[in-house]
Structure formats: C-alpha cells, structure tokens
Design brief:
This protein is an alpha+beta fold. It contains eleven helices and 22 strands.
Length: 466
C-alpha cells in the first residue's frame, strides 16, 4: 500500500523483545513441536467493511450461504449420553433435534412437525418418541413415523414421505457437530489440523462442569472477535497484565477453518514496567486473577500458596504448582507436561463460531450465535474438566442463562473469569452502535495480533462468494 509506514515490515510484524518462541525456550519442558512453529501468514491490510456487522442484507447472506454449509458445534456428548437423550439446537433460522440412537450414534432431525409445522421440541431431555403437542403426529427416536391420529384422513402421507428430514452429523473430541447441507467436506477434513493438536488434550475425556450464556446486544462477530486477540487485554483487562505476555502472543493460521492464539501466562506483560517487580509478585497476581488456578487458594488462611524459590522464574514455579494441582484434581502423571500446556491461553477457533481452549487445565469453550438477528447474539462460556481415569462421565450441567440485568460475575460457577468477561462486555454494545454510525465505515486490523479476525472474514467471504 502506498501510504504504508516504510519502517514497518508487512511480513513479520512482531512486538520488539522476546517472542512466544523465546518464552517457550526458557521453559523446563517443551510443548509439542506444532506449538512453536510460526504459522503466521500476512493476509493483507485492507479495512473490513463495517456493514458486515449490522447490515440485514449481509446477515441474510450469512444465513443463506454460510450457516447451512458449515459444521456447527451443536452439543457435547455429556448433554445426551444415553439412547433417547435429545438436545434442541437452534441457529440462524433453523431448528435441529439431536437424538442419541440405540447404537450410540447421533442423528439430527429438522425439528419441525411434518403436519402443520409446529416445532417438535424446545428443550433438551429424554424421550421414547417425539409426539407433536398440536395434533399428536408422533415419530420414533430414529425419525421414522410412529403414529398419525385419524390416519384414515391422511391416506396421501406414506410412512416414507413422513420420515423426519435429517442434517449431517459429525463428532470429534466429545463435540457433536451438525451441518445442514448433505454435501461438503467431512468433519475431519473441516477441522484439520485441530484434532491432531488436541490428541493429548483429549476433550473427549472432559465434561461440561460450568455453562453460562447471555444474550449480548451486539453482532455475533463483534462479540466473537473480542475473544480472538490478546491485543485488547492491556486496556480492557489491566489486572491481567502482571502475569500475561499479551504482546508476546503467537497467532497462527492453521487451515481455512482453524486458527489459534497462544498467549503466555506467568510472564509480565511488555506493557508493564518490570522494574522492582519480583517473580513472587507475578505469581501472586496470577493466582488471584487467573480463573484457572483456584486450586492454589487456601480460604482458611486467605492466601495463595505458590512460592517462588530463590533464582526460579514465576513461570517455572507456576508450572511446577500446576503439575501438582492437576495430579491432585484429575489423577494421572503431569510430571512430563510442559509449562505452556498447563498455564497458557491456547485459544483455537473453529470457523465460524466455536473456540475451544487447548492444554490440560479445565478448558474454556466459547460459542457465539446470532440471537436471532444481526443486532444480538447468544454468547456461551463453558468450562470442561477432565474426568479422572476410570471414573464415569457425569452428565453436563445445564446452561445457566443470565437475564438482561445479570452480569457474568453473577454466575459463581465461572469464578474470577466472570469479571473478566464483564470487562469484555463493556465494549460489545458500544462497538455495535459505533459501527452503525461510523463516518468512514472501516474496521482496521493489526497485521499480526488481529490476523485471526482477517482470516475469519476471508473464510466467510469464501462461503458468501461460493
Ligand atoms: S402441527 Fe404437529 S401434529 Fe399438527
Ligand atoms: Fe477479553
């Protein structure tokens, strides 16, 4: 671009000072090799059109061209473990009824009665048939027709014709995905290389232990994009800076549908003046404000119990503490696990609207959906935790839907994470409103730290232009 700053390279923009790789090299145990591979790609610097976030015509393009053709995270196994368990999943003008079959597989039906069109279900639960509450048309859990009251009146409706139409279903890592379209890449192809990365983190061994949702007055993409970069952290979440290498984070493009942000914890932010700050201070701030470390809090003494031995770094001391805490909490041997996989924010995004965290700690999983229009979304935050080996998988907790007047901090199951998400929420509605009255109609992105947002929009364009 003509007006580009000639001193700033477009190919390797990076925060001066130690990078992600340098931080990993100081660790006592290295993570899998893919975590240190630089897979950044420069994807251009043009602004994103603000209309994409509020224009009903653009929203309609998403509804018609994108949503039916993508794999959507619809449920976790632990929401519907047994035959007859069902989940109602709705998004973008469609309603799906996911049902666990006798053989353990899952079918997803279009959740619409084939008589006069009432939705069959609106909840999740167990059923041995799906009988429409309007006139009683009933289906078996495998989608075959069971009964039509006064069948004599419907001689024109054969059993075959009345089979509930199905959507595609794919499963990975305890997640159940649906796709409206019959044709397209398999879930394995779509997710690559994410399943390879999660091989050791095994989300199939985890269950949902906390699940909170809230309707946000902002476009689903505005809300999601606030969780795709660490760049906002030093202004929006200042309390995290003592222990967050926000500007040291790595951003990688892994495939059309997958990208990742690795943000190191246990290391002081380049935005903070480190003079006079001890390693113990970094640790103390971490255990206070990092939502994933409450195991180290001793309520009796009201103190945090990670001590940094003389000469050791905060990050190494925290890694050590996390290894012990993980063994206590989940059993198993964590002695060979890297600092990074126990501490860091390893935030993957699966196009278009799901973000599972990697690593061994209880993992956050985000999902965003338009709810139901361009101006509102449902944001969900789950925490999935490892079930100790050999123990039965408990069922998922139900979603705790916050009311308009409640904040994320009103959900005690999120711990200190709730307050962090509330800080993010202070930006959502005002960004949505701001874009609607933007003078130049442009959204500008950093070449590096916001590359995942650009990548998202480029993949979205592939669907919209297909
Ligand atoms: S609409 Fe379902 S039975 Fe009539
Ligand atoms: Fe944030």
């Amino acid at each position: 671009m003509a007006d580009r700053d000639p001193n700033l390279s477009e190919n390797t923009p990076r925060c001066p000072g130690p990078g992600w790789d340098d931080i990993l090299q100081q660790d006592s145990i290295q993570p899998p090799a893919f975590m240190s591979e630089d897979q950044y790609q420069y994807l251009g610097s043009d602004p994103i059109d603000a209309k994409r976030f509020y224009d009903p015509a653009f929203f309609q393009l998403e509804v018609e061209k994108m949503w039916p053709n993508v794999w959507q995270f619809a449920a976790r196994n632990e929401e519907m473990p047994d035959a007859g368990d069902y989940v109602t999943y709705e998004n973008a003008g469609r309603s799906y009824l996911l049902v666990r079959q006798e053989d353990g597989s899952v079918k997803a039906f279009h959740n619409v009665c084939l008589h006069r069109g009432r939705k069959l279900t609106t909840d999740s639960g167990f059923a041995d048939q799906f009988a429409c509450p309007f006139h009683g048309f009933a289906w078996n859990t495998d989608g075959t027709l069971k009964n039509i009251p006064c069948r004599w009146d419907f001689g024109h409706l054969s059993d075959k014709k009345m089979q509930l139409p199905e959507a595609s279903v794919g499963t990975w890592g305890g997640y159940i995905f649906v796709r409206d379209a019959a044709e397209g890449p398999s879930l394995e192809e779509y997710l690559a290389p994410l399943p390879e990365h999660f091989k050791q983190w095994r989300h199939e061994d985890c269950v949902t232990v906390a699940w909170v949702g809230k309707v946000v007055k902002a476009n689903w993409k505005i809300t999601m994009e606030a969780f795709m970069e660490s760049y906002h952290a030093y202004v929006t979440h200042p309390q995290l800076m003592p222990f967050t290498g926000d500007a040291n984070a790595a951003y990688n493009i892994l495939g059309d549908h997958v990208n990742v942000n690795y943000t190191p914890f246990g290391t002081i932010s380049p935005h903070v003046n480190a003079n006079g700050k001890s390693e113990q201070w970094i640790v103390d701030e971490f255990v206070k404000y990092n939502g994933r470390s409450s195991d180290n809090y001793d309520p009796d003494k009201d103190q945090y119990n990670v001590h940094v031995p003389e000469g050791k770094s905060a990050r190494l001391a925290l890694g050590e503490a996390m290894r012990e805490a993980s063994t206590r909490a989940f059993g198993g041997d964590y002695s060979k696990v890297s600092e990074s996989e126990l501490l860091d924010a390893l935030v993957y995004n699966i196009f278009p609207n799901t973000a599972p965290w990697g690593g061994f700690m209880p993992n956050i999983v985000y999902r965003w959906r338009p709810w139901p229009d361009a101006d509102h979304c449902l944001m969900e935050v789950r925490v999935i935790a490892r079930v100790p080996e050999g123990k039965p998988h408990p069922r998922s907790v139900p979603m705790h839907l916050l009311s308009d007047s409640e904040t994320w901090a009103d959900a005690p199951e999120l711990g200190v994470l709730g307050a962090v998400v509330d800080q993010d929420m202070t930006n959502m509605e005002l960004t949505h409103e701001g874009l609607k009255c933007s003078k130049n109609g442009n959204v500008e992105l950093g070449d590096y730290q916001e590359i995942r947002i650009r990548h998202f929009h480029q993949t979205l364009d592939k669907y919209i232009n297909a």
